[in-house]
Write a structure and sequence with these properties.
two-stranded antiparallel sheet; 9-stranded mixed sheet; 33% helix; globular; alpha/beta; 388 residues; 11 strands
Amino acid sequence: MSLRGQAYIAGAFEHPTRKAPDKTVAQLHAECALGALADAGLTKDDVDGYFCAGDAPGMGPLAMADYMNLRLRHLDSTELGGCSYIAHVAHAAAAIAAGQCDVALITLAGRPRSEGYSGANARPVVAAAPDAAWEAPFGPVTTNIYGMCAMRHMHEFGTTSEQLAWIKVAASHHAQHNPNAMLREVVTVAEVLASPMIADPLHRLDCCVVTDGGGALIVVRPEIARSLKRPRVQVRGTGETMKGQAGGDVDLTYSGGRRSGKAAFEEAGIAPADIKYASIYDSFTITVLMQIEDLGFCAHGQGGRFVADGNLISGIGRLPFNTDGGGLCNNHPANRGGITKVIEAVRQLRGEAHPAVQVRNCDLALAHGTGGFLGSRHGSATLILERE
């Protein structure tokens, strides 16, 4: 079933905090929900569908729905890591099209900064995973798993650290205009390369920020969208998949975005060249580079050349990306930034991004993310949105 035109994003809200030692995770979820509802012009009593993932405390949607005193007909706790919330938009659209709910709320929140998390101390091996015993002896953590992908991409295609650095440079050019961004200072390629090495070949500035905070989205039926006094942003195409170890046939140079992107573009009936703005998950610079290739914005192995020389900077390059500063500079709440990718895409389509980074005539936008770990197993979700 095509979801094109079946649902609209009517509300979007990003929590302004980047450190919240005085708030609980549940409180952050609720504050994000209220912000998105206010943006849409709705109240919590209008919500009859709720979507959240593993960041929600206490059995996911059950505890949070009770905490927020929601009266629901439909719940979804799909867990795909950082791209869960991109997938949730698709799932909400499908639920609305099937008549299971009319107003869907999606929330994300977390406090990793207050709790002392970093990618260098996070061990992704899950004890219950069938192959965990073969991974654990090598000491995998988030940073070295992504460093492994970067090193392989460099070996296969000649990608350079300078090319990866341009992704951080582009994000910093955008973040300077975001008053809530954690890192607002514009950096140069030389400064990225001079920052400490974290997991060869990734430097500190190749890594995303760690923040508290969160965000929320409201997805509604077309009839409700037309009744609200907000610009209409429709769900035009969706795609969802996973990529794992493939029984030992491992290729670290591409992600599941190769499949989820293809599905989303086919459903939307457009090509990558039609996209005016792209929100791309940026846990690390290599994450962005690989996904740009996988989504078809350039050929496999040509990502390094594509991202260099400011090609991702709004107003300068061919593919404006992450105009809020992204996870590299702005916000990466709950160690999973997928929802912020949708929020900034909605801002761009509404014409509500900062004037310095607003893409002209932005009518088609893409939000894409990964969840899990590119070097082992991960989910991928792609969303194509259109301004009506």
